[in-house]
Amino acid sequence: MKGAEVVEEESVAERCDVRRAAGDAQDDGALSLRERKKRLTRQRISGEATALFLERGFDEVAVAEVARAAGVSTMTVFNYFPRKEDLFLDRIPEATELVVGAVRGRGADESPLAALRRLALDLLVQRHPLGGLGEGFEHFFRTVLAAPSLRARAREAAEEIEAALAGALAEAAGGDPARPDWDARLAAAMIVAAWRTLYAEVVSRQLEGDPVQEVAVEHEAVIRHTFDVLARALPDGGPERS
After folding, report:
1. Is the pLDDT of residue 23 over 70?
2. Cβ neighbours around 224 below 10 Å, total
3. C-alpha–C-alpha distance, residues 89 and 210, integer Å
């Protein structure tokens, strides 16, 4: 049985690494050699950390152990990840970039809310980790739920994304992104609250053992309904242009 457990742990870590590599795919030609090396080092550190956390639990692994596994110093780990929690929740910056990028890069006739709806549906289709749905994702969720510090960091991340989205919405309405007004902050809070509810639902379904494909079909309908509700609350697709 021990051998089977080891194989299962390795397969979980491998699936996680595949998802990470797929999600991080981008045009390396746009990066300098130094930037590519830094990116690969970051991925290696996070990948080793993820494997250890999935195998033993977040609280049972020291940062020094992650450093040894990745072949770097503990100081190097903290240079890339200021907090231990960010080793596991390493996609927080990517989440912020995707949300803000969807608003800023939307089509000329597309509202911020429509762009965010499109992003949510795209993440589902791609089985992107930030969409919350995919084969083997339940191992990641169980690790997060078992560690109070990871749950707290996830809540902080939602607040960070909300603040960034408020700035993007303010900018889209002709305001100051550094000082979003009440309408932009309220719209961002509503959208992030809806997104968190969507994420919690898809996580719950997977933890209950529901087949991913079945969840995907139903979750697409839930995403569309959720954004329809938001559209009624935000008829202009975001705060009104000033």
Report:
1. no
2. 13
3. 24
